[in-house]
Amino acid sequence: MEGLRKRTIFLAVGFIAVGLGFRAFAQASHIKRTEKWMQTVTPKEIPGYRMEKSAQNPDISYQSDKMVYDTLVPYGIVARVFQQEKGNQVYDVNVIASSTKDSFHDPRVCFTAQGWNIDKETSATVQTETRGEVKVTLAEMSHAKLGKHPAVFFYKGPDGFTPTTAGLKIQMLKHQFMTLRDQEGTFYRVIALSRDCTTEDLLKFTGQWLDEANKVSDGFF
Fold first, then answer.
1. What is the DSSP string of 196-216?
2. pTM of the entire structure?
């Protein structure tokens, strides 16, 4: 009988602790960042490339569809297209950031919203000068008007870069419970728009972009 009472007390204390933890978690202060802030700390210039500027907003190349914002509910999306200055290579870079793991879905959500389909996925590694090797997902993309193009996508969470949505969500959930605070995550997508661009060219450009992002965002992006 005494043993049963002790186990009951132990369970009660455990439930109270869990309840207090979830209460604190629910009251955790929210991270407040904006898309405008993102535009100031993501690369506008890459050595050897120039950014195409939108007439409506010179800080971006184009505005993502409202459906993407409504579906993902991020605190910002920055879409920029980079044209090679002495060559024909063109890259579309899309960065999505949020302070909730629910913003990060299957990447087909935002790809499809922009008319792209993923035909095939494999693993790849991007070499950088400032961030070491970054594991990414290499995809073969197809578009009704633009045809087939290679692309990479990957994520960054509290523990660093990861090539998958699941990897990011695990990072964010783990740190939420460890700190009882919101955690931030970022989705990166780079599509090679030029037909003569190889997979090696795409991975090289992605590495250049990451090195520049490391510099202009002080390591955040």
1. T--HHHHHHHHHHHHHHHHHH
2. 0.84
